Amino acid sequence: MKIRPLTPKFGMEIFDLTLSEVTEATEFPEIRRLFEEHSVLLFRNQKIDELQHLKFGQLFGPIEDRLVDEREPGDTYKIPKVSNVREDGSIIDELDEHTLHLKANFQWHADSTFMPSPALTNILIARLVTSSGGETELASTRVSWSVMPKKLKESIRGRGIWHRYAHSRAKVDPNLAKLSMFHKWKDQHWKSVWTNPVNGQEALYIASHAYKVDGYSSAQSELLISELIEFCTQPHFVYSHRWKVGDVLLWDQRAVLHRGRPWPYREPRTLSSICVSTTETDGLEQIRLST
Ligand code: OGA
Ligand code: MN
Q1: Whose CA is nearest to atom 3 of ligand 1?
Q2: Pocket probe mutation, ligand 1, options 42, 79, 101, 105, max atoms within 8 Å of Cβ
Q3: 253 in ligand 1 pocket by Cβ < 6 Å?
Q4: 241 Cβ inside 6 Å of ligand 1
Q5: Is the CB–ligand 1 distance for residue 122 below 6 Å?
Q6: What would the mean pLDDT of 150-170 be, rounded to a whole number?
Q7: Is the C-beta atom of 79 inside 6 A of ligand 1?
Q8: Is 283 in the pocket of ligand 1 (CB under 6 A)?
Q9: Which ligand 1 atom is the nearest neighbour of the CA of 269?
């Protein structure tokens, strides 16, 4: 496979590959190897429809379905859209609750750390892009953890962190956080370091959803969580992706933080998003703490 680094320390762009044709028996094992090693993969100019997106996602593991409890008999799974466009094509207002929810993604996070099986990856495909802004930024917590000053490292190593969906929404708007969609799962308690089971590489596992560190008060926890995220997201640890239609970007949530960036809100922006859940082979049981 022809590849090129996205940054000096993490991320790879893969060229000359038709993702819609990838199977377990052909290119997938090499893609998975590159995923474990480089944490972020980019494929450009892809023509990939919804079913092909889903099939590609299934190669990584079980597909996350946050709406499973809301679905009526006969309703089927639909690929989630990160989008400000309604079904009729109109654009959702900047002050709408849905836009606030999208803006909550501007905080550095890993996906679904508040669910019993957090996301292994999010496979994003650009469908509609804006004339400016709207970047998705990725920061390797494997790289930053490896060079973190000892004092900061020792303040978190060996401690568990609690995660709650409503926590990241409350930081944007306390009313947003009250919506039932943010209260479906009980708080999750994960080790603060995720060791990759394939290569033994450690990464800090933290998110905007993190609210409490074992052994610290709530106020101390908040300060420490901010300090850790700030350290890990310094510009030299970040890859900023400017979207073009047909880009497919995916990353290892166990070792990468991400965030969205603002865009001109009157312009349509749509990414198709499939999250794949972690399983035991991804190291999930090694980071699970009692609740
Ligand atoms: C996501 C996300 C950021 C963006 O899809 O999980 O955080 O750039 N997206 O829209
Ligand atoms: Mn996200």
Answers
A1: 260
A2: 105
A3: no
A4: no
A5: yes
A6: 98
A7: no
A8: no
A9: 10
Residue whose tokens read 């998705």: 136
Which pLDDT band holds residue 127 (cuts at 50, 70, 90)? very high
**Pocket flag, ligand 1, residue 140 (CB < 6 Å):** no
Question: Does ligand 1 come within 6 angstroms of the Cβ of 82?
Answer: yes
Instruction: Indicate which residue's Cα is closest to atom 7 of ligand 1.
Output: 105
For the stretch 37-46, pLDDT in tens is 999 999 999 9
Over residues 87-98, the mean pLDDT reads 96
What is the distance in A from the centroid of ligand 1 to the CA of 199?
27
Task: Give the number of other CB atoms < 10 A from CB of residue 129.
Answer: 20
Q: Where are the domains of the chain?
A: 2-287
Reading the block at residue 184, the tokens are 């479906």
pLDDT of residue 174: 96
Cβ pair 11, 48 in contact under 8 A: no
Beta-carbon contacts of 159 under 8 Å, excluding residues fewer than 6 positions away, are 192, 213, 214, 215, 216
Instruction: State the Cα–Cα distance between residues 84 and 100, nearest whole angstrom.
Output: 10
> Which of 55-59, 71-75, 257-261 has the least mean pLDDT?
71-75
Could you tell me which CATH class the domain 2-287 is placed in? alpha beta
Q: How does residue 33 score in pLDDT terms, banded at 50, 70 and 90?
A: very high
List Cα–Cα distances, 181 to 68, 114, 150, 186, in angstroms: 12, 12, 39, 12
Helices (H), 120-279: 141-146, 150-156, 165-170, 218-232
Instruction: Give the containing element (helix H, strand E) for 252.
Output: strand 248-252
**What digits encode the pLDDT tens for the residues 207-252?**
999 999 999 999 999 999 999 999 999 999 999 999 999 999 999 9
